[in-house]
Amino acid sequence: MTEAAAVRVSGLWKRFGEHVAVAGIDLVLPAGRFIGLVGPNGAGKTTTLSMATGLLRPDQGTVEVVGHDVWRDPVRVKARIGVLPEGLRLFERLSGRELLAYTGRLRGLPGAEVDKRATQLLDVLDLAGAQHKLVVDYSTGMRKKIGLAAALLHNPEVLFLDEPFEGVDPVSAQTIRGVLERYTASGATVVFSSHVMELVESLCDWVAVMAAGRIRAQGTLAEVRGAETSLQRAFLELVGAGGRDAGSDLDWLGGGPR
Ligand SMILES: Nc1ncnc2c1ncn2[C@@H]1O[C@H](COP(=O)(O)OP(=O)(O)OP(=O)(O)O)[C@@H](O)[C@H]1O
């Protein structure tokens, strides 16, 4: 039996001037999975996630999320997804709780329900003590966590996260991880981008590898890892960096005249 797709990307292209950021990719991301989109810096991950979430218009191609076209039916899609974008912009002069109250009402949830969910999310994400502090005074990890709470408040079917663990300390990372694991265990889908292979390997059961705007591999973690002993090794082979001896030209470094 084929699994239902949470996200279906067909022939997606994006150019910035002469530069091709995303070169006609096809992706089928199964529902109910913890999915990692991995690739080196500049691979096109953010551009792909931006097009998949209705933030950046593709030059060509389509994206369907839970069966609806993102660009033809944006309202229906946006009601079903949560997004934690790169370089998250938040309303800095609101407190964490005010931000959630505002987001919840924007999503059309009744006030009492927003209050209940906000209290639970603030608690689980360890932000209850900082709920009345202004977002502008939040640390990087706290910003990621309040952004995640805002993205989860309306209980989306698919959650897109761009580098959710970047700049986050191990304690906050563990908290975020716990919330995401609970969320996917209930049948929802998480799609997140990262270049930290160990993290993807320990969290994801499905992986897409991207390099230079193209998809180099997609499938279950075991399929993508293949005969390699780790995702890191498989990744280096796939992106063509497996045999590179980094530093071989730096014979002056750490020795010789200073
Ligand atoms: N708005 C833009 N204007 C011009 N070029 C852009 C723009 N956005 C992205 N690019 C280019 O497109 C390519 C893909 O960028 P993208 O941010 O999607 O990569 P990424 O895989 O998310 O990288 P990273 O892991 O470093 O965040 C890069 O070469 C980048 O410089």
UniProtKB/TrEMBL annotation:
Predominant place of localization: membrane
Keyword field: Antibiotic resistance, ATP-binding, Nucleotide-binding, Transport
Keyword Secreted: no
Domain ABC transporter: 7-237
Subcellular location: Cell membrane
GO molecular function, a single term: ATP binding
Position of the signal peptide: none
Topology of this chain in the membrane: Peripheral membrane protein
Cross-referenced PROSITE patterns: ABC_TRANSPORTER_2
InterPro entries linked: AAA+_ATPase (IPR003593), ABC_transporter-like_ATP-bd (IPR003439), ABC_transporter_ATP-binding (IPR050763), P-loop_NTPase (IPR027417)
Superkingdom, natural source: Bacteria
Matching SMART domains: AAA (SM00382)
Keyword ATP-binding: yes
Protein's recorded name: ABC transporter ATP-binding protein
Origin species: Streptomyces alfalfae
